[in-house]
Fold this protein.
Amino acid sequence: MSTIQSLLSLLDSAQKARDEALAQLEGSRRIHEAARKQAQSLADWRKDYQQRWSSKFSLTGGMEIMRCYQDFTARLGDAVSEQDKRVEQAKQTFDQCRAHLIERERKVAAVEQLIERRQQEHSRKLERQDQKATDEQAARSGRGSSPFAAFGATHFVPTSY
């Protein structure tokens, strides 16, 4: 049974590792989602900004204002690109965490299956021992008696007619 105890310790350790992997996956999911929302907000804001200023430039606009607008939109474009990189990095981290979690879940399942097999083997071993003991008991009780012992006779002496 010490093997089962060792396996139960291994199972406990594997379950803890799986739970940690699950927590990491959840954290990386939140980070990815936040980065994605931030990227979407920046892209929406840039689009809105460009639409607002495009209409103003059609009415009035000097060269200085146009240069400021272009510089700002370039920096905003850089910010959007940088945020897109962060989204991709967060997605990669999330995918790695998911793969790690799957690996941990497989380990837990393998250990659980091994424990189940060991318990079944142990049960079969006990059943064989019980059967052997029953067979030996039956053999011992059958050695010293004859088939006629149930009728009170210990020996059968045939008679001739």
About this structure: Residues 11-104 form one domain. The two ends are 65 Å apart (CA to CA). The CA atoms of residues 37 and 87 lie 9 Å apart.
